[in-house]
Design goal:
single chain; about 300 residues; alpha+beta; Ribosomal Protein S5, domain 2; about 35% helix; EC 2.7.1.39; transferase
């Protein structure tokens, strides 16, 4: 039995960032920690504390274990390490649009890679994670940190990472109900009007440019989306009212976080503003009968990393 045990920390993520559907994401300062030990004996032992502890499977369906096996297979070591001991300390809310499945995938890949002496690069891990998840918008920021813009060309993933030239606060309203990504995908149309596509291309380009330049003036209208939010609004009571309340309280803008139901407001780092925005979002949700917790987060700039190696 290999006695090495490793701890990995992976940030939660918010995908789409308004107009950047399935392409723009960010990492935020809420984390899942994973302790991983590979064993030569078959079988996997899994323990979980925190978010989703009663809902996450502790058998072969566990996505961390599946990701560990995926990487070992790629390395030709699946017959060497047939089992694992996994412990998860979860702070990222489950099925809320903060990338909980992406953190699990990235944690499994990053931890297993560290235990086999980092055979694969971060870019290769991104490719593996995208192959498992199906798209890169959540796994890319979980790996790299910061804001990420990702494209897939004939199956090959490319990712550009940027740290904006401004300090942003991310105020997240977390409703007390889950929403599966599958259900949120099912409401989307197969085709969209040309004007809606143009709306998103322009705003996504301006979002990235404004972040690169640190120009807050151009962030005030960029988060409006026409490709997915209008169709998902019926799944989240009061969504547009919460957006309006956030802007009225001083946020630059607000959007659906991933597939939802979390809503995220983007603020400049001024304490009184983020407190007011959080309260306004909470109250707007309450008017629609939804109880929501508020998380006041920052941009994570490090991405997935090893906490210890012993």
């Amino acid at each position: 039995m290999d006695s090495r045990s490793i701890w990995v920390r992976v940030p939660g993520t918010s995908a789409n960032c308004g107009p950047g559907f399935d392409s723009i994401g960010l990492a935020c300062t809420v984390y899942n920690d994973l302790q991983l030990q590979l064993t030569e004996a078959p079988g996997c032992r899994i323990t979980i504390n925190g978010a989703g502890a009663g809902n996450i499977p502790c058998d072969d369906r566990n996505i961390v274990w599946q990701s560990v096996q995926y990487l070992l297979k790629k390395a030709g070591l699946a017959d060497t390490y047939k089992g694992a001991i996994i412990h998860m300390e979860n702070n990222v809310p489950l099925s809320r649009g903060l990338g909980s499945s992406a953190t699990a995938i990235v944690a499994g890949l990053k931890g297993a890679n560290a235990l086999i002496n980092n055979r694969f690069t971060r870019r290769e891990l991104l490719q593996f994670a995208t192959d498992i998840e199906g798209h890169p918008d959540n796994v890319a920021p979980a790996i790299y940190g910061g804001f990420t813009i990702s494209t897939v060309t004939r199956g090959d993933v490319e990712c550009f990472t940027l740290i904006p030239k401004m300090r942003l606060k991310l105020v997240v309203a977390v409703p007390d109900f889950p929403l599966s990504t599958k259900k949120a995908r099912e409401v989307l149309p197969k085709e969209v009007p040309m004007k809606d596509a143009i709306n998103n291309i322009g705003r996504a380009g301006m979002l990235v440019a404004a972040l690169c330049k640190g120009n807050e003036k151009f962030l005030r209208n960029v988060f409006e989306d026409a490709l997915h939010q209008p169709y998902r609004a019926k799944l989240i009571p009061g969504m547009y009212d919460v957006f309006s309340a956030a802007k009225k309280a001083g946020a630059l803008g607000a959007s659906l976080s991933g597939a939802g139901p979390c809503l995220i407001a983007y603020c400049l780092q001024r304490r009184h503003v983020e407190d007011a925005v959080g309260q306004a979002m909470q109250e707007a949700f309450a008017r629609h009968g939804v109880k929501a917790n508020i998380l006041s987060l920052e941009l994570d700039t490090r991405g997935a990393h090893i906490l210890n190696d012993k």
